[in-house]
Specification:
Largest sheet: 7 strands, mixed
Distance between the termini: 18 Å
Strand order of the largest sheet: 6-5-4-3-2-1-14
Structural class: alpha/beta
């Protein structure tokens, strides 16, 4: 399995059997991102995770493309599509287990992290790919029960996030490698600060924080061992 970060929370995942795109949002680098993929997985409806106009265009351009999303987002995408393309959108809920592009996908969670009591909560799903290779939590600190992924895609900075809770979440998930994502609002100084603090916590729990270069493809099995 190979992964390529496309900025903020978007990750391209590929195997010899197919490929998919996780959370292509408006802060991600999406030029060419939908070319040749089998599916799009969406954790929730916020625009930084789901660029709905571009997703709709991709579905119309490729009748084989499938999109998997929580109910409210799935309904919104269908409403924006011509009738023949609506069947390309699949509603996903926690507990679902399916295969797309030769990649096993399991859905966990259910709710977006709280931003403020005045802001309505939306559905959020975390996706486990392969046989526990990669876990993408979307915008949530809900720990997936009964799994220990090889790699955790770890959200760094958001209106809902607090670094102490980020550290506790990553430690509880138990992945040996933490890959930073959700950093589209950070400049270089901010990324360095988060990386330093999280690296210290990762080492203390027997894990490793590994920042990946956006646009570069990495073999998932090797990112915890190479420099």
């Amino acid at each position: 399995m190979r992964i390529t970060l496309r900025g903020h929370s978007a990750i391209h995942v590929a195997t010899i059997d197919g490929s998919l795109l996780l959370d292509p949002g408006v802060w991600s680098e999406l030029d060419g991102a939908f070319t040749g993929i089998n599916a799009v997985l969406l954790t929730h409806q916020h625009a930084d995770h789901a660029d709905q106009p571009r997703i709709v265009s991709a579905v119309i351009e490729n009748s084989m493309l499938r999109v998997y999303a929580p109910d409210a987002l799935a309904r919104a995408l269908r409403a924006a599509l011509p009738g023949p393309h609506q069947a390309q959108i699949t509603t996903v809920q926690a507990g679902d287990d399916f295969v797309v592009g030769g990649i096993r996908v399991r859905a966990f969670g259910g709710t977006h992290a709280t931003i403020h009591s005045s802001i309505e909560l939306v559905a959020n799903l975390g996706y486990l790919l392969g046989e526990s290779e990669l876990f993408h939590p979307g915008d949530s600190y809900q720990v997936p029960i009964g799994i220990r992924p090889q790699v955790l895609a770890l959200p760094l900075m958001a209106p809902w996030a607090k670094i102490a809770e980020t550290m506790d979440f990553a430690t509880a998930v138990g992945a040996p490698v933490w890959v930073p994502i959700h950093d589209g609002l950070l400049n270089e100084r901010g990324r360095n600060l988060f990386d330093t603090q999280l690296s210290t916590r990762a080492q203390g729990s027997g894990a490793r924080l590994r920042r990946l270069e956006p646009g570069t493809s990495y073999e998932l099995a090797q990112i915890g061992t190479d420099a």
